[in-house]
Amino acid sequence: MAYAKALFFFFRLLLLINLLTVSFCDDAAVMAKLLAALSPTPSGWSTSADYCAWDYVACQSGNVYIISLASQSISGELPSELTQLASLRSLSVQQNSLSGPLPSFANMSSLEELYLDSNEFSSIPQDFLLGLPNLGTFNISDNDKLSPWQIPSYLAESTYLGSFCASNASIIGAIPNFFNSFPNLRNLGLSYNNLAGSLPASFGSSEIQNLWLNNQQQGLSGTIDVLSSMTQLSQVWLHANAFTGPIPDLSKCVNLFDLQLRDNQLTGVVPVSITGLPKLVNITLQHNTLQGPMPEFGNNVKKNLGNGFCNDKPGPCDPQVTALLAVAGDLGYPITLVQSWHGNNACNNWAPISCDAQGNVISLTLRKQGFSGTISPALANLTSLRNLYLNDNNLTGPIPESLTTLPNLQELEVSNNNLSGPIPVFPPSVIFSHGGNLFLGKNVSIGGSPSSGQNSDALIPSDNPLSGNSNGSSISGGMIVGVVIAVVIVVVVVFFVSYKCYMKRQHKMKVNVNGTTVSIEIKKRDIVDYGRTFPALEDGNISIPIQVLQKATNFFSHENVLGSGGYGVVYLGKLDDGTKVAVKKMKDGAMHTKGMNEFQAEIAFLTKVRHRNLVALIGYCINDNNRLLVYEYMSQGTLGHHLFEWEKHGFDPLSWKQRVSIALDVARGIEYLHSFAHQNFIHRDIKSSNILLSDDMRAKVADFGLVRKAPNDKSSFETRVAGTFGYLAPEYATTGRATNKVDVYAFGVVLMEIITGKKAVDETLPDETCHLVTWFHKIIRRGHNLRNAIDPTLDLDDQTFESVSKVAELAAHCTANKYFRRPNTEHVVNVLGPFAHKWKPLRPEEIEEKYGGLDLHMSLPLAFHDSSIDESLSFTEAQLNGHRLNQSAQF
Question: Where in the sequence numbering do the catalytic residues fall?
Answer without folding.
Answer: 685
